[in-house]
Amino acid sequence: IFVCPLMCSVKQFLGLLKKMDVNLDTISTKVNSAVTRLEKKYDVSRALYQRFEKCVGISGKEILRSCWTMFLLAKGGALQMEDDLVISFHLMVCVLEFFIRRCPPSLLQPLYRKTDSFPSTTASFRTSRRNQSKAKPRQAPPEVDVQLLETLCKENDCSVEEVHTTFSLFTLVACQATDLSKQYEELYFKSRDFDSRLFLDNDETLLTPKVEPTPRKNLPEDVVLIPPQTPVRAAMNSIAQLRVDLITSGDQPSSNLAVYFKNCTVDPTEEVLQRVESLGLLFSQRFGQAVGPRCVGLGKQRFTLGIRLYYRVMESMLKSEEKRLSVQNFSKLLNDSTFHTSLLACALEVVMATYGGDNGGVPVETDLCFPWILDVFQLTAFDFYKVIESFIKAEPSLSKDIVKHLERCEHLIMETIAWREDSPLFELLKRTREEGPVEQAEPPATLNQPLQHNHTAADLYLSPVRPSSRTLPAPESTAPPSSQPSAPAPHQTPRHPKSNSLSLFYKKLYRLAYMRLKMLYTQLLTSHPELEPIMWTLFQHTLQNEYELMRDRHLDQLMMSAMYAICKVKNVDLRFKTIVTAYKNMPNTNQETFKHVLIREGQYDSIIVFYNLVFMQKLKTNILQYASPRPPTLSPIPHIPRSPYKFPNSPLRVPGSNNVYISPMKSPTRMSPVMTPRTRILVSIGESFGTSDKFQKINAMVNSSDRSLKRSLDMSSAPKPLKRLRFDVEGQDEDDAESEKDKP
């Protein structure tokens, strides 16, 4: 339990906790998880209250208090995941419909005063701040006014279908509501986090510190500045855009897909439909378990969107393959269950990310975030990775945020998820190693070039996954003897087909590994440029030849160990404490990566213990070679990674400018962009742009734009090591053990 000595806001309190964790071991993993959940819940609650103030449609302080309190009860009582922004907002719309329908017209905003359209059932909402027991809605199940609900949904860019489904969650709370204040207090003391009713009083503990706006200089006249979107508005826009994109797609195979199915040697139609049905039931049940038992219907709605995207992308993929290969029979691919499950999982991940994404600052991680879908379908991460790139290329309507999300999923797979104990990756590596070394590091090439390959999902799913330990006999031939291939010479060894999926996986893995190493190295060792290629050589050697070290571990654990090992052998003073301090500043990091490392089966410890007891013991001979007069040959540096995916509608920077971008006009079928620049200028050039004065203003803006480069890292100084890093004494390296003597 943390006690704050001074009155402070929730945000200030959370910031204080982060400062208390300066030693990296002050806050346990369990407490850190609870604090993270608290922050997510607060951010969602604050975003919802901001929206509540704008869309409530009712006047009267006590009625507003009753309305907000009933919403909190509905959210806390019906949802196991109170940080789900979308479902929570849909619940709020249901509560607003309930109260608006019962308020007299004099208390309603003009939009809702149409008493002939919205029959009012007057109810007493008089409550006091200390006791709201007089707010007693009807005990009978509330009947929804469809027309009023449609109006509310239209005003808030919601799907009527989804909100109507959510109404059943609200009904349960409305029927049991007798004393709103007492019921909420019971809920509050049960959760013991923060009292969301205080939003109504503008309580200082729930306010966020105000940030001074950045001064805007040299802005031309007649410039339209787009205000930032609220988290709720951004979420509703993203969902609405997804629904627009899928409006022409059905939840059954299209006629074009049906033709592809019939062209197969073995028609997959029946198995495809049966698989979709069984996975749909499984998805809805698991969705209900994660969100709330009464949310199965919402899970079915999201699955339906996923099915539409699944069929749509499948058809696009097959068309591309037909054009590439000039064939129409895809029987082997379309009868591959893993391919279909992976493709459907990817479509559902897009849907789930759209509903639970980073909407205007609200945290992205929820109980439904990746790799939840893999656990639901019992799908291995290595199989799922095969479809990601082809999926993105086959669906150009994906937003930039969704593409980035799928790329992040791919990185998570390569960093840790594909290396879990039961992953087929290890068996494939073992079999492939018998045939020769794993995919070699890439040869030197021009920096900033994307990864070049021609593999599609079909290539990856149909390539060998578990090569046999013996070659298959050659098929019999009816050709004349003179036309038959000659037998291999005695010294030749028959080779198995190369696994395209493993080859591409390692190409991407090397790029990601080098990118992570480069980030960390840039913070710590720019004064020793000669060490970077040596560190990369050890890191790459480990991934290629000692891949068992990755089993149930994280890529970054090997990266930090390789960096420390080379510094030790080259007599460069770099402590693990300093490495971990810099590591925390890198994107996509977690304290468990260096505090909870597998040592042996069932035993976990710090990164320093892992280095001494596992990494050093396994690679000691190889590490010491770098101190010899004849060190190992350096591995070539791979391409610096860059996204292989193109965004046709993404803004392009004007050459020579710092903040000027140009993007093509949107398609008429696309909605307004969700992008909400806070300090940028949006200029739309169309047929009615006007006189040349505006062009001259644009030219002046470009010419006067600040062309200074972004502030670079201070390469001359490494981050200061932490005052104390409480790793277990057992297994510490010699230098760090000495430093422990000075501890109080």
Describe the structure.
This protein has 744 residues and is mostly helical. The protein is built from 26 helices and four strands. The strands form two sheets. It has a two-stranded antiparallel sheet. β1 and β2 form a beta hairpin. α15 runs antiparallel to α16. The protein is globular and about 90 Å long. The two termini are 24 Å apart. 35% of the residues are buried. Its main location: cytoplasm. It comes from Oncorhynchus tshawytscha (Chinook salmon). GO terms for molecular function: RNA polymerase II transcription regulatory region sequence-specific DNA binding. This is Retinoblastoma-associated protein. InterPro entries: Cyclin-like_sf, RB_A, RB_B, RB_C, RB_fam, RB_N.
- Tell me the number of strands: 4
N-to-C CA distance: 24 Å
Mean pLDDT: 77
**Helix/strand structural class:** mainly alpha
Total count of helical runs of at least 4 residues = 26
Shape: globular
Radius of gyration: 30 Å
- β-strand amount: under 5%
* Helical residues, percent: 40-55%
SSE series: HHHHHHHHHHHHHHHHHHHHHHHEEHEEHH
Low-confidence region ranges: 1-5, 115-138, 359-364, 441-448, 465-494, 672-681, 705-718, 721-732, 734-744
Strand order of the largest sheet: 1-2
How does the major sheet shape up?
2 strands, antiparallel
What structural keywords apply?
1% strand; two-stranded antiparallel ribbon; disordered N terminus; single chain; 744 residues; mainly alpha; globular; 4 strands
What's this model, at a glance?
With 744 residues, the chain is mostly helical. 49% of the residues lie in helices and 1% in strands.
